[in-house]
Amino acid sequence: MTSGEPTAVCVDWGTSSFRAYLTQADGAIVERIESPRGVLTVGKGEHEEVLARLIGGWLARSGPLPVVMAGMVGARQGWVEAPYAKCPAGLPEIAAAIMTVNTRAMGAIGLAPGVCAFDREGAPDVMRGEETQILGALAAMGRADGVFVLPGTHSKWARVESGRIMSFATYMTGEVFATLKDHSILGRLMDAASQDGAGFAEGVRAASRLERPGDVLHAIFMTRTLGLFDRLRPDQLSDYLSGLLIGAELVSGARGAQGAVVVGSAALTARYCAAGAILGLALEPAPDDCAPLGLLALLAHWRRA
Length: 305
Description:
Shape: globular
Largest sheet: 6 strands, mixed
Number of helices: 9
Number of domains: 2
CATH superfamily of the largest domain: 2-keto-3-deoxy-galactonokinase, substrate binding domain
């Protein structure tokens, strides 16, 4: 934290959480707010009221400040649907696609567009919010190229060249893990996860042995049989499943690359780096608070336009 003069409010408004940052021009964070008021908890027509309630104290103390938002708040089920910027997309292209949302109490707010890409078969893929984290990581690390992984419910693997997101792919790793653990027969044998890491490592190694696309479905069922035959303890089974799914994601996402930058929470970043070490991939943690750095960069371009 710092006590410097604030110049902007940056909002990362996702599906399940709300994060806002009162920032200085150089990216230093004066204050921050974290709330469970994610987009899915906000009814149609309530977004302006929720936002004003959460950041209104900052604006009351500091006076009018520019506000820029990113994340699922710009999705179809969010406040206003913001059309995607198409890859290749860097800071100029994403900033040019920022939408203006006019509010009664907070004036004109900038809403980042998200990014879309198409694979070799023409199938579409999308991200909302992760693009700002990538832009922030590039700025914080002084880089213009690389592979970036953003782990989570829907993990993203992005390839960046000359500061532009050239392509990316989404992996439903976190959601599949939660669904299998909590809503399938696999969870029946599981106890609370141990801290020894053995189950996780075994899952990652199992992922490294996968040869055909369907092999992962067989390996997932081994979460149950390894428990039935006492090859893994009940407190190691959820870690095995986590390691298997993260390992399979890494093998596919990092294909052709020697490593990647991980942009995520401390816990998930540590987990991905541990899996990368087993697989021989050099995974490097990104600096903290990449989202507000990316949003500030977008805001600067947007205000100059």
